[in-house]
Amino acid sequence: MPLFRVLGLVAPLLTLTAGHEITYESQDPIGPSFSSVNTTSLLDTIRTRGYIRVGTTGDYKPFTYQLDNATTLPDGTTFNTTYIGADVDMAQSLSNALSLPSSPIFVPSAWANLTMDIAANKFDIAMGGVSITLARAQTSFFSTPVQRVGKTGCIRCADKGKYTDLKSLDVVSTKIAANPGGTNEAFDRATFTKAQVVIVEDNNAVYQAVIDGTADAMVSDKIEVELQVNLNNGTLCMVNEVPWTFEELGYLLPRDDVLKIFVDTWWRIQEGSGAWNATLEKWMGYKWPVV
């Protein structure tokens, strides 16, 4: 009788005994090839530890923003954490869903280092407007996408007649500001063959470079451009209403199936209940510091 292996399990043989009773005989001497019963996951480690470590860049409003001693919030609010933003709130929500006794610990990272840092076990999850890319997906997992975005141009409103599309931006005299190591810089270098790409090390100051004339334009995710246009109404304007690319944001995870399943399940509840939309709306309307 042939044996059939399905998803790593061997179908048992049926044996007809003398009393015409059917018995089952396992033909796999080493047992099933996969079992979730004794699988150890980072999820278990997090629960035992009592807190979750969240990697974040702290420079992508409305998702993550790092405060410092020199920062004065317009509404005078005092925060117990050094980070604020939509994904900072979501990190606390994830912590609550895990019933962790301590608040999340936020670990500083940089866009170019996210996958290396998570592979080095510096944090359990990266949150804060992380673009889902094939390059990152080669070494890490992503959660279910949390936000659809796409590259959009931001310019001074005084230049609206001058810059109307990618072609008009891509001229020798144009300077495009970009933060280093992320998808914005990658897009700029792949798209602009004539315009000069100017790297601004501090992503919080990259739009200021456009305002003060150090650069002529900035290309980023539409949601960030929309926020900056609202914060700098009449000074900064959007080039294109329809994004030039298709991109999605998600949460970066280590290669751990159990943790990913939990995060995806938690996220579906946040999305379906309206909690995510309410959180994002709150921070899109927030009176952020200018830089």
UniProtKB/TrEMBL annotation:
InterPro entries associated with the record: Solute-binding_3/MltF_N
Keyword Signal carried by entry: yes
Signal peptide span: 1-19
Cross-referenced SUPFAM superfamilies: Periplasmic binding protein-like II
Assigned keywords, A-Z: Signal
Name of the molecule in the record: Solute-binding protein family 3/N-terminal domain-containing protein
Solute-binding protein family 3/N-terminal domain span: 51-287
Keyword Signal among record annotations: yes
Top-level taxonomy: Eukaryota, Fungi, Dikarya, Ascomycota, Pezizomycotina
Residues spanning the membrane: none
